[in-house]
Amino acid sequence: MNAMLDIRLLTKRYGGLLATDQLSLSLAPGELHAIIGPNGAGKTTLIGQLGGEVASDSGSIVFDGQDINGLLPAQRALRGLARSYQITSVFPEFSVLENVALAMQAHRGHSFGFWTPMLKQSELVEPALRAIEQAGLSHRARAMVSELAHGERRQLEMAMVLVAEPKLLLLDEPMAGMSHQESGNVVRLLQGLKGRYTMLLVEHDMDAVFALADRISVLVYGRIIASGTPQDIRNNEEVKIAYLGDEALPI
Amino acid sequence: MMRNTLSAWFAAILVALLLAVPLYASMAGEPFALTFVSRVLVFALAAISLNLILGYGGMVSFGHALYMGLGAYVVGILAQHGVTNGWVQLAATLAICALVGLVTGAISLRTSGIAFIMITLAFAQMFYYLFVSLKQYGGDDGLSIPARSEFGLFSLASPLALYYVALVLVLLALALTHRLVDARFGMVLRGCRINERRMNAMGFPTLRYKLTAYVIASMLCGLSGLLYANLTGFASPAYLAWTLSGELIVIVVLGGMATVFGPLVGAITLLVSEEILKALTDHWMAILGPLIVLVVLTARRGMYGYLLDIDAWRARRRQPAAPLTSKEQP
Amino acid sequence: MTTSLFFIQILNGLQLGVLLFMLSAGLTLVFGIMNFVNLAHGSLYMMGAYFAASAYAKTDSFVLAALVGIAGSAALGFLVERVVASRLYARDHLDQVLATFGLILFFNEITRWVWGASPVYMNVPPALSGTINLLGISYSAYRFAIIVVGLLVALGCYVLINKTRVGMLIRAGSSNPTIVAALGVNIKLLNATIFALGAALAGVAGLMSGPILSVQTGMGEPILITAMIVIVIGGIGSVRGAFYSAIIVGLIDTAGRAFLPMMLREFLDRSTAQAAGPALASMLTCIFMAAVLALKPAGLFPVKNQ
Hints:
The structure holds 3 protein chains of 3 kinds.
Chain A lengths: L4 E10 L2 E11 L4 E5 L6 H9 L6 E6 L2 E2 L5 H6 L2 E4 L11 H10 L16 H13 L15 H13 L5 E5 L7 H14 L4 E5 L3 H7 L2 E6 L2 E6 L1 H5 L2 H8 L7
Parallel strand pairs in A: 3-8, 3-9, 6-7, 7-8
Antiparallel strand pairs in A: 1-2, 1-4, 4-5, 9-10
Helix pairs in contact in A: 3-4, 3-5, 4-5
Chain B lengths: L5 H22 L3 H26 L8 H16 L5 H23 L4 H21 L9 E2 L14 H24 L1 H19 L3 H27 L1 E2 L6 H14 L6 H19 L3 H15 L4 H16 L12
Chain C lengths: L2 H32 L6 H19 L2 H22 L9 H23 L15 E4 L2 E4 H23 L1 H11 L1 H6 L4 H23 L10 H15 L4 H26 L5 H26 L11
Antiparallel strand pairs in C: 1-2
């Protein structure tokens, strides 16, 4: 079976700093692949390059069989690549429903409609309500996003990336800043998506990572130092040293 | 159909008063009232167009008066050459403003932030110099318009006709804004102002929508220029001056950015304030200047915006948002 | 068109270029470091000219007039920064545009009130009123002095920014304002200083323009707009970019005003061709700006962020 995402020798420099160092990675369809690593390892830069906001210096990114290097973020999104943000990036002045319906709108036809209200278009509202339900936010669908708690906004981020049923989800620390209970909700949500969606998950929450991931790659100074099943990573000496010196990983 | 809110009542009363102005002007023998409010409506129309790209779209254009000037000069130049058919002038205005808007917009929208503001200013200034240099069309002194626009059924030579045309256009523009902002196009435009990065990540090619909004705004503003030329009987490079662009921005912000009625409220407020200040002292701009600074530092929601805020606060007190499931419609 | 006429226009272009540089340098720094749109910068240029013109009329000493002009605009700049600008650094550009627009209206009206609506004339200082001989060409001594002063100022800016501690802070502030504050630098004083320095430079440009243009209400805005084009082309925040772009724009603008009408005179009558000068100059600069933006949207010498 062909890989959903095939990254080869991806490199990115910022002046003297090598943020991504000839990184190669391959994701099979339906796989949930987690990227872990110490802070500053280059995880967000990697997501940026995959999403199209950061231009790579060299290397290739093949998504669902197509070379997407050079494509703009909007073009990648329309091909089924959805990205969520580490620092919540939503539309505070819109309601939850408007946020998600808008995310759907990009994928359903053009936006040169000047007369019919967006919220009266069932082809946008129905998928939006389903995604909101999936993310566990139905009780807040009409609320203004500015009134949502932090955890609820992270749930909104999830609804927004799910609504258009993307082929690949790039999740940049979806559980950042969440309480234990809140992250439990997200873990359950992601577990429900496994198999149907291909996911690249960048996370610091080790409980979640080990509960969810089919495979894990460890990123240190822009390079993948280890890649394998959760069991492999758990037992990998280099990984333990990279994270905590000589102390064992707190699993 | 009208909601029982403070802002809705305010808007309704405002429209009713505007409809009554001609009656007042003729009964009280005050033709100045008619010309003054016509001027307010012309500026309101220009401000409504600017509100679309600035208020809703977040594009700070400091060169919007360019289109007012273009509209005025189209009328002036065509009239100079004997073409006083209003429909021809209208078509020419829309076409020229659309073209200029498309070209300057496409260039300006390659940038954002400070650069965008400066470039829109530069383009307006370029056209200002162009019209100053056209000596055969008045140059620096401006162009006196020999005859007003004739539309067959009515003529803009009649102050009453001009007033009603302006009022109808303003009401239509308000209605258009009202529908547009909740429609697909409006949501994309507003989304671009709030979080353009996310809009791109979601799959929207934002440039084409921003440019479309820019061109629509240019054409609408050109329309206000056409009216303005008929009102003053004049087309002047001053209509393209950066000071006028600045005034339009003040009107939009004063009235309430990204609100439907804001531009109308703002136009009334600014022009009335100017009249009052002018009556007080010759150096009224020395007062208006700091006043604008003060308004910016303290009150950013605009007058109509504050009314809407009050309504929202009262609505929330009465009824908190209820949950929705897939089976219910919003 | 004689060779000497051609060279005179080149020199005029350089002269306009250095004036534009002095006006742009402060503006681009304020844009780049404090992320502040200062439309009132043209007013500081204007006030420098008015202060100098008044002082010159009263004292007959150009040197004194220049000092008054520079000190006056620097002080005014400092005042504007403390009272208005510093409150708006965190606000969005629209607020800054509106506030500084209000300031322009205020300053313009003040000049009308205090000095009257008619232009104030400033004489060329007697020491520089003649012509000098440059490689066989006779050129106005005063305009040449402007070029010299301008280049010295540019050199001074280069030394300040690249060789001093303040300059280092400016460069750091250009690419990462938050870190500079975190380094324990008195950021408020630094900002006020940068603003006042920019204002002083604008004042120099203003007072030097006095004898060759007329000192009048609203003289700041047209040249401010050209300065903004210079900054966009050069790259916002880049003083080096402002220098090169100012020289180029100065040359293009002068060419537009001088050469094109000459060529147009073949087709149009003299007064029309002459009147077309400013419009053509403005169009050429705008077209050049559009061309630069098409290829390099961040300008010719963009400041590399972080």
